[in-house]
Specification:
This protein has about 625 residues and is α/β, with parallel strands linked by helices. The protein is built from 26 helices and 14 strands.
Length: about 625
C-alpha cells in the first residue's frame, strides 16, 4: 500500500476475492458459443483466442516466478543480498489483477472496433509499426510518466506502493495501484490501437507485444543478473536499447535514477542514468553460487504439494499446506512433473540467513506414498546419500534429515549413510532430540497421565521413557505398543508408569502415524492431541485441540522466510530443521542418527538461547 493511498488505489473487484475471475465468464462463454454455432467467415478467431492469451500470460508469469525463486535460492548472480518476507508476499499477491484488467480491455476493444473480429494472424507491416511505436512514443512517454510518478504527491499517494519492494521478484513489476495501471494501459495500448485503426493489426502483433512487455518486465525485476556479457560486447549499441535486471534494481534501491522502461537511452539523454549501473552489472555477473553452512533435506508430501512449494504458487506457499479441490484438478500436470524427476536429483528450494550462517533447504523429488513403498527404498536412499556426499564435498557443516528422509526401515534414522561413508565431515542430524524436547514441553504442566497411540518410533521411545522418569503415567490400548515400550523401559526405574488399558479418558494424547478416526472419536471432549510423528493426524474432532507436529517458531532475525514449511504456520520450522541449525551454531561436531539421541535438555536450552520459541497451542 502507498504511504498515503490516493483515489482509485484499490481494484474495483477486490470485494469479490477469488470470485473476481467470474467477471470474464460472460465473454468467455459467449466467445466459445459463437465460435461453435457460427459458420465460416462469421466465426471470429481473435475473439476465441482472447481467453487463451490471458491463460498464456498467467503461465508466462508463473514460469518467471518459479525460475527466479530457484535462481535466487542458489545465490548465483544475485543483485541485492536482502531478504523477502511474508509482508511483501502478501502485498504482491494480487499480481493477477492486471491480467484480469487486460482481459476486460481486450473484450471491450473487440466489441468496439469493427476490424478486430476478422483480424489476420500475421501482418508484417503491422508488426514493424508496433515495434516503431514502442521504441518511440511509448518509451519516451513512459520515461516522463515515470518521472512524474516520483513527484512528491504522486509518489506518496501511488508509486510508493511499487517501491515498497526493495528486493524485487518478477511479479513486483505489476504491483501498482489501480489508477497507476490505468495510466500504463493507456500508454501501452497506443501501438495496438494505432495498428487497429490503420487496419494493420494482427493476432501475432497483439499477443507478441503483450508477451514482450511481460518478458521484459519480469526479467527486469528478477533479483539476479541473467544477461550475458557477450550480448553487449558483440552489439555495443544494445546497452541503449535493452535494460538489465541490475540496471532496474538500482532504480528500486536509489529511486531517483534509471527511470526508463526497457530502453535506457532516455536515461542517457536526460542525464538520469545511475553511474554505478555498469559496475553493479559486472559485480552481479561475478557473484558465485552460494555455499551454505547448513542444509535441511526434505521431500514432497503429495504430487500436488509441488504447487505449495515456494517455487510453485506464491499464494499457496505463503499459507500452511492444505489440500485444495482446484489444485487436485492439476494432478496430471503434477504427475508429469514428477515423472521427469523420478530419476532426478535433489534441488534447492530455499535459502535463509541466521547469525552469519547461510542455510538452504533441498528437496528430494519423491513424495510420501513413494517412501511407504519398500521397493523404492534403494532409489530413495541413493538420492539422499548423493545429497549428503554433495554437501560433504562442498564443505557444508551440518545436514538435517526432514520428514521420511530419516525413517527407521529406510535408513535406520540416517545411520546407514554414516556406516557407508565413515569419512564424512558433514554431520548428519535427524533432530530426534529436539523433537523429544518439543513434545515434552508441549504437555501442559500438572499433567499426570498421557494416552499413547501411534506407530513405534525413536521419538516415541524417548518421549515415553522421559515421561515415566518424570512420574507421568503413559497409557496405551495396543498390546504390541505396550510390549515395545515396556521392552524399552526395562533398564529404567519407572515403577508402574506404563499401563495397558482400553479406557480413553486421558485429556492429553501423544499420537503418531496409525491413529484412526474411530480412536479419535473415543477421546473425551476437550482432549489435546500432541503429535510426535513427522506428519499430523487428520482432524476428526471439532471439540478437541490439535497441536502441530514437533516444531518451533523462528526468531525475527532469521531472514528470508517467505513460505510455510508444509502444514506449519508462518515462520514455524520443524524440529529436525531447527536441530540442524542449532548443531551448526553451537559447533557440535557429532552426528545424531541411529537409535541414539543428543542431550535433550542441552539442545532445548540452546534453541531457546538462540531465539527459537515453542509454538502456542491454538484453542
Amino acid at each position: 500500500m502507498a504511504s498515503k493511498p490516493g483515489i482509485l488505489t484499490d481494484w474495483p473487484w477486490k470485494p469479490l476475492g477469488s470470485f473476481k475471475y467470474l467477471i470474464l465468464a460472460p465473454w468467455v462463454l459467449h466467445s466459445i458459443y459463437s465460435f461453435i454455432t457460427k459458420d465460416g467467415k462469421e466465426r471470429s478467431l481473435p475473439y476465441l483466442l482472447i481467453f487463451p492469451s490471458l491463460f498464456w500470460r498467467m503461465l508466462h508469469n508463473q514460469i518467471w516466478i518459479s525460475f527466479s525463486r530457484y535462481r535466487t535460492a542458489t545465490g548465483k548472480n544475485r543483485i541485492v543480498d536482502k531478504s523477502i518476507e511474508f509482508e511483501q508476499v502478501d502485498r504482491e499477491s494480487n499480481w493477477d489483477d492486471q491480467v484480469l484488467l487486460s482481459g476486460i480491455v481486450f473484450y471491450v476493444v473487440y466489441m468496439t472496433f469493427s476490424g478486430v473480429p476478422h483480424m489476420p494472424l500475421w501482418r508484417t507491416d503491422g508488426v514493424i509499426l508496433t515495434i516503431l511505436l514502442h521504441m518511440g512514443p511509448v518509451e519516451f512517454l513512459y520515461y516522463w510518466l515515470h518521472r512524474a510518478l516520483h513527484h512528491h504527491y504522486l509518489y506518496l499517494h501511488y508509486h510508493s506502493h511499487h517501491h515498497s519492494s526493495i528486493v524485487t521478484e518478477p511479479i513486483s513489476s505489476v504491483i501498482h495501484p489501480f489508477a497507476e495501471h490505468l495510466a500504463y494501459f493507456l500508454l501501452f495500448s497506443m501501438p495496438l490501437l494505432t495498428t487497429i485503426l490503420m487496419g494493420k493489426s494482427s493476432v501475432v502483433a497483439l499477443v507478441g507485444y503483450i508477451t514482450y512487455i511481460d518478458f521484459m518486465n519480469n526479467m527486469g525485476h528478477c533479483n539476479f543478473e541473467m544477461t550475458p556479457r557477450m550480448v553487449f560486447s558483440c552489439l555495443a549499441p544494445l546497452k541503449y536499447l535493452m535494460y538489465t535486471a541490475s540496471y532496474h534494481s538500482l532504480h528500486h534501491t536509489e529511486i531517483r535514477t534509471n527511470y526508463s522502461l526497457f530502453m535506457p537511452i532516455y536515461d542517457y539523454i536526460f542525464g538520469t542514468m545511475d553511474k554505478s549501473s555498469d559496475l553493479l552489472y559486472e559485480k552481479s555477473l561475478k557473484q558465485p553460487e552460494e555455499t551454505p553452512d547448513v542444509v535441511h533435506l526434505t521431500h514432497l508430501v503429495t504430487p500436488q504439494s509441488i504447487y505449495h512449494l515456494r517455487l510453485g504458487f506464491t499464494f499457496l506457499a505463503s499459507k500452511p499446506y492444505k489440500s485444495k479441490w482446484y489444485i487436485r484438478g492439476l494432478w496430471p500436470l503434477a504427475f508429469s512433473v514428477m515423472l521427469t524427476w523420478t530419476h532426478g536429483r535433489t534441488y534447492i528450494l530455499e535459502r535463509n540467513r541466521f547469525n552469519k550462517f547461510n542455510i538452504q533447504t533441498w528437496v528430494v523429488p519423491k513424495f510420501k506414498k513413494q517412501y511407504l513403498s519398500k521397493w523404492r527404498n534403494e532409489s530413495i536412499n541413493s538420492l539422499i546419500e548423493e545429497a549428503i556426499l554433495k554437501a560433504d564435498k562442498n564443505g557444508i557443516k551440518v545436514l538435517s534429515l526432514g520428514l521420511f528422509n530419516q525413517g527407521d526401515e529406510l535408513n535406520s534414522y540416517g545411520e546407514l549413510y554414516i556406516l557407508r561413508n565413515p569419512q564424512l565431515k558433514t554431520k548428519v542430524v535427524d533432530g530426534s532430540s529436539l523433537a523429544v524436547a518439543v513434545v515434552l514441553n508441549s504437555i501442559p504442566k500438572g499433567t499426570t497421565q498421557v494416552f499413547f497411540r501411534g506407530n513405534f518410533s525413536k521419538v516415541a521411545c524417548f518421549v515415553s521413557s522421559a515421561l515415566c522418569q518424570m512420574g507421568i503415567q503413559v497409557v496405551t490400548s495396543q498390546k504390541d505398543e505396550y510390549e515395545k515400550l515396556n521392552a524399552n523401559l526395562k533398564n529404567i526405574e519407572c515403577g508402574n508408569k506404563l499401563v495397558l488399558s482400553e479406557r480413553y479418558d486421558e485429556k492429553v494424547w501423544l499420537v503418531g502415524d496409525g491413529l484412526t478416526k474411530e480412536e479419535q472419536l473415543k477421546a473425551s471432549k476437550g482432549t489435546l492431541f500432541i503429535p510426535f510423528a513427522q506428519f499430523p493426524p487428520k482432524k476428526w474432532r471439532k471439540d478437541c485441540l490439535y497441536h502441530t507436529t514437533p516444531a518451533m517458531m523462528s526468531p525475527k532475525s532469521f531472514q528470508n522466510i517467505d513460505s510455510c514449511e508444509n502444514w506449519l504456520p508462518r515462520r514455524a520450522m520443524s524440529a529436525s530443521r531447527v536441530a540442524g541449525v542449532i548443531h551448526a551454531l553451537e559447533g557440535w561436531n557429532v552426528d545424531e542418527c541411529g537409535n541414539t539421541t543428543f542431550n535433550v535438555e542441552k539442545i532445548w536450552e540452546a534453541s531457546l538461547r538462540h531465539g527459537f520459541r515453542p509454538l502456542p497451542i491454538l484453542t
